[in-house]
Every structure is written in structure tokens, then in C-alpha cells.
Design a protein that fits this description.
Elements: H1 5-10, E1 15-20, H2 23-32, E2 36-39, H3 41-47, H4 58-71, E3 76-79, H5 87-99, E4 104-108, H6 127-140, E5 147-152, H7 161-173, E6 178-181, H8 189-200, E7 207-209, H9 219-224, E8 229-232, H10 235-254, H11 267-273, H12 280-283
Parallel strand pairs: 1-2, 1-8, 2-3, 3-4, 4-5, 5-6, 6-7, 7-8
Bound molecules: sulfopyruvate and magnesium ion.
Length: 296
Amino acid sequence: MNRTIRQLIADDVPVRAIGVHDGLSAILAQKAGFEALWAGGLGISASHGVPDAGILTMTEFHQDAVRIRRSTTLPVIADVDAGFGDVDVVRRMVKLYDSAGIDAVCIEDKQYPKRNSFLDGHLLEEPSVFARKIEAAKSSQQSDEFMVIARLESLIAGSTMEDAVSRALVYAKAGADAILIHSRLKTPAEIETFSREARTAGLTVPLFAVPTTYHTTSVDQLHEMGIAGMIYANQLIRGSITAMEHVLSRLYADGSTTAMEPEISTLKELFSLVDTDTLDGLKSWSGLAPAVGAQA
Ligand code: SPV
Ligand code: MG
């Protein structure tokens, strides 16, 4: 039985949530030992071949989060952009995600059209309007364990540290179970300052961060700074792009797969990852020779 995000945080275990975009990437992340999964908008959008700019619908994001949920037993944090609409949409969104067994949603305080935080042109939501979304989200959850993470984009949108800290207090008062503080500096300076100033100002909920640009800062260093959860949002899909490009260019150039065979997963590994061995329908055929190529 995996520990919940709340339990991990209570035990002071850093929660490393790795961004995944489908069932297979979720299975691989669980095998690798991560504590939680991030069903991220960038990865899921990219897997659909579209930009992370509010293009996919709530239904599409929800379906992919459910696919991730069903493939693993790890806690799943779903990135739900700015909630996909106003408070009424947020209420329905929470019901959909909570009833599907998703452990947490992360809602960001940006206005539509929301763009990925590493792009430009962000419009921050009014703190009071966003606080109502958090209240609506919290009042719509059915399971006690469900978490609503309020994501602060002040430092992404060029606003001040003071604004970030005051918003954090407003969102926590509205019921947020945790705050995600996002920064795109190359160092964790903003994260460290926010953590210190927010605590001094009275913030008590756990903090999450997204160490994409300040990647030289380790999990332990971030934990020391008061960060409970680290979201590695895009590294897995970036790595898979590199792997796919490598295989594609080799195959295109070589005209056969022979040279790359030692570098790619065997069919046996692939079958095993998705539990093919446990199929009853296949067991009844076990006396027969495997299909051609199945030993590869
Ligand atoms: C995502 O993975 O979609 C995120 C995290 O929201 S970030 O790309 O850092 O904005
Ligand atoms: Mg996102």
C-alpha cells in the first residue's frame, strides 16, 4: 500500500512527483521508486501533439489523468490549469477528479488563456476571485484525503515576492491544503525567500516547487528550504523525445533495426511492464509455441 501525500508530508519524507503523460510512463515512474505522479498539462498536451496553452479540454485532461490513475497505485496530482473555468466549473472538475480516485488537483492563479509558465504573456487572477475557486474546490470534495493545491504564479508573471506571500495567505485561508510556488530563475533564490517569508508571515500549509530551471538544486536541498514536494514536471517527456528521436534517426539511416536492437527494450520487457504475463486468456495457451518474434 502506498503512502498518501499527506502521510509522506507528515513523516517529513520529500514527495518527488514525476510528470507522466500516459499509462506506460506512469508504470515506469512507479517502478523507478517515485513517491507520486504529476499528471501535467505540458506533458499531456505534448502527448496529444498540441501546445500547453489551454488547448485541450477538461474532459481530455481528465481522461488522461484517469488513465494514469488506473495504471498505478501511486498518489496522482493532477494539473488542472486554472480550473478550466469559473467556480461552477471548478466544482464539477473536483467532483470528476475526486470520484475518479485522483489524490490532488493543483489549480493555478492565472486567467484564461493560460499558457505554460515557461512562455510569456501571463495574466494573474485577482486573489479574491481565485480564493473563491479554492473555496469551491474544497467544498466539492467527497473524500477526506483529497487535496487542493493552490499554485502561485506571481513570480512567473513578474509580480513581487510581497504579492506572492500575501496571495499564499489568502489561498490558505480559503482552504488550500498546500501551496505550489513556481519560479523560473536558474537558482532557488526565490523559492528559498518565499519559503522563509511565507512562514514568517504565518503560512503553515506544505509547500511544493517545480525545480525545472533550478535543476542543480537537489531534493534534499529543497527539502531543507522547507519544500515538502518537488514536481519534476517535464523531464520524463523530454527524455522520451530524445529516445524516440534517437531510434527514429538510427532506423531511418540504417534501413534495419539490427544495430539498435541492444539499445531498445525487448518485447519481453514491454509485455511484462503491462502485466501481459498475468492474462488468464494467455495462460490457457501456455503449451503453445510463442508467436514469431515474441522472444525478441
Ligand atoms: C505542467 O507540467 O504542465 C506544469 C508545470 O504546469 S510547468 O510546466 O512548470 O508550468
Ligand atoms: Mg501545467
